[in-house]
Design brief:
Length: 381
């Protein structure tokens, strides 16, 4: 089967990193069409996945666009649409990985007469999107998609609640190769030494810097933990959230935490960094659609504490394979951090259990098989 994958982003967010694992097995039978140039293209190339940047013109529609703005941007998209229709005719299937990719993919599937799959990596609710964007996404998916792959039950539920047809949906979690998360002790020691983390209790936060990812919650929690508790923030402001970055720095200065917090920017050595942490904290203030970092921490054998909402609740069972805390409650988070600091053995048991469950439950080979079967079934109906 030849697949044309479409993704709007030039930057590697969670949806894009997931796409790498899905597209890779198809080799030359896949093409990833991007609507922006950027580092994601290079990462695809490093994985030998065919990639083409289909437009470098910024698509102006935002998550909060109104109807007039959405319509204006649709007109602006016509040249891109023509290009995608032409390419799509050489492929068996169009696989839209993001919302703007859904817009183009839906129309292209109609003109090129190719089935459309929409991989839903978002919680389609008003917390994240404008009413117009929601309506456009749901209407296009209902009209044109043969299959909507939701990345969690939470994403699937929000899709149906917003008016999406449930019979189109299938829930498939992100897949991971457990081998990529095996880190040697010498690598851990090296990172701890490089970052000056020896002797500290390190809480890692691995997310792009954005208000709803809640980095500020962890900073607040630090004030309620003993001084050896240090935080590392791994990730960049991928979508221009510079005001938030500034706020975080102000918060750190105001609380006198300069020596207990490090910002490492975007990194590609996530497994090594996670393995060097004593705890990984996920602090999203809005429901997380899936939460790749939660599974990655588990695969690294590092205990994880996550905000109890959305997809995170499907990944973590409190006290069994990790910890759950109420979103936006720094005190509760601090209590978990302090418990982890004291009960090292119980934690190690929880982390071991999490690693073994996650290695099976999210194994990329099994997940890719599930996707392949779903795609094949579209041609056997
Ligand atoms: N990530 C990364 N480098 C960074 C920060 C994050 O490669 O510096 C990765 C992280 O390991 C995870 C993904 O970005 O695989 C984020 O996915 P998640 O589902 O947690 O959040 P999203 O970005 O999709 O909202």
């Amino acid at each position: 089967m030849k697949i044309l994958f479409l993704d709007q982003s030039g930057k590697p967010g969670g949806a894009e990193l997931c796409l790498i694992d899905i597209a890779k097995p198809y080799g030359d039978r896949a093409l990833v069409g991007l609507f922006a140039d950027g580092p994601f293209k290079n990462i695809l190339q490093q994985h030998s996945i065919p990639v083409e940047v289909l437009t470098t013109q910024a698509i102006k529609v935002r998550k909060q666009s109104n109807f007039a703005q959405a319509l204006a941007s649709l007109i602006q998209l016509i040249p891109l649409l023509i290009k995608v229709v032409k390419i799509a005719k050489q492929y068996d299937l169009i696989y839209a990985n993001t919302q703007k990719a859904l817009v183009i993919g839906a129309l292209a599937s109609f003109f090129a007469r190719r089935p459309l799959v929409y991989h839903l990596h978002d919680i389609l609710s008003q917390e994240h999107f404008s009413q117009t964007n929601l309506r456009v996404a749901i209407t296009l998916a209902n009209l044109f998609a043969s299959l909507v792959i939701a990345n969690s039950a939470a994403s699937q539920k929000a899709f149906v609640q917003a008016g999406g047809k449930s019979e189109l949906t299938a829930i498939v979690y992100n897949g991971f190769d457990p081998k990529n998360y095996q880190v040697s002790e010498s690598d851990v020691n090296k990172i701890q030494h490089q970052l000056g983390l020896e002797g500290k209790f390190v809480v890692g936060h691995f997310s792009r810097l954005a208000p709803w990812k809640g980095q500020h919650i962890l900073i607040d929690a630090l004030t309620k933990c003993p001084p050896q508790v240090t935080a590392i923030f791994v990730g960049d402001a991928l979508f221009g959230e510079q005001d938030y970055v500034q706020q975080l720095h102000q918060q750190i200065t105001a609380l006198g935490l300069e020596n207990r917090v490090k910002f490492l920017g975007f990194r590609s050595d996530i497994p090594q960094l996670m393995a060097a942490c004593n705890l990984v904290a996920h602090t999203s203030t809005a429901p997380e659609p899936f939460g790749r970092v939660i599974v990655e921490a588990m695969l690294c054998g590092t205990p994880v504490v996550a905000a109890k909402a959305g997809g995170a609740m499907e990944l973590v069972e409190h006290g069994v394979n990790g910890f759950l805390v109420t979103p936006e409650q720094p005190l509760e988070l601090a209590q978990v951090i302090n418990t982890c600091l004291q009960e090292i053995e119980i934690n190690a048991t929880i982390a071991d259990r999490a690693k073994s469950i996650a290695s099976q439950r999210f194994d990329v080979a099994t997940i890719n098989q599930q996707i392949a079967q779903l795609l094949c079934s579209l041609f056997n109906e």
